[in-house]
Amino acid sequence: MSLDALKSALPDYAQDLRRNLSAVIDDSELSAQQLWGTVLVTAIAARSPIVLRALAPQAKAQLSPEAYSAAKSAASVMALNNVFFRTRHLLSDHEYGGLRTGLRMNVLGDPGVDKVDFELWSLAVSAINACGLCLDSHEQALRRAGVDRRTVQEAFRIAAVIQAVGVTLEAEAVLEDE
Q1: 112 and 73 in contact (C-beta within 8 Å)?
Q2: Are 121 and 41 in contact (CB under 8 A)?
Q3: What pLDDT tens digit does each residue of the chain (178 aa) get?
């Protein structure tokens, strides 16, 4: 399934999603690497096989092998970090914050692509996984690197749309089976 097929698969009641999907991909001001890396990481984080099958081939065609691998690494490490840090943050016992994490996250030090791109992808995954602590951390790193708010917002706009497309299409697949 291609991007166009993905848009066509959206039901009529989700026509706004169809338009939003076109807008965040076709009208993005992000670089091609930032855009397609964000699309890939959010397709992975959305946990929708339909969306991932549709968008991963196009992302792979648009990204260098290094960037494709780095984007998958961002999705993987943020799946870990978002659960860990969100949980530690939500616990009322703040002593957990002083404990060593004991988790390997070496890819954060050397992601294989520009750190700004990796931070942008990490922020997008954190938006889907609803980790406020990670969102703040990645947003602050991006802002320190000189990235403007519109670019940061573009990453979580993509995350919101990809997540919504996944939820909608997965629900439709289940409802069709009834």
Answers
A1: yes
A2: yes
A3: 788 899 999 999 999 999 999 999 999 999 999 999 999 999 999 999 999 999 999 999 999 999 999 999 999 999 999 999 999 999 999 999 898 888 777 777 777 889 999 999 999 999 999 999 999 999 999 999 999 999 999 999 999 999 999 999 999 988 887 6
Q: How far is CA 118 from the centre of its chain?
A: 11
Q: Which residues have a catalytic role annotated?
A: 131, 134
Domain annotation for the chain: domains and CATH numbers: 3-177 (1.20.1290.10)
| Distance from C-alpha of 26 to C-alpha of 42, rounded to nearest angstrom | 16
Phi/psi for 2 (5° steps) reads: -100, 180
Asked whether the beta carbons of 166 and 48 are under 8 A apart, the reply is yes
- Written as six digits, the tokens of 103 are 């988790």
Q: What is the pTM of this model?
A: 0.93
3-state secondary structure (DSSP) of residue 1: coil
Q: Are the beta carbons of 144 and 21 closer than 8 angstroms?
A: no
> Taking a C-beta distance cutoff of 8 angstroms, is the pair 86, 134 a contact?
yes
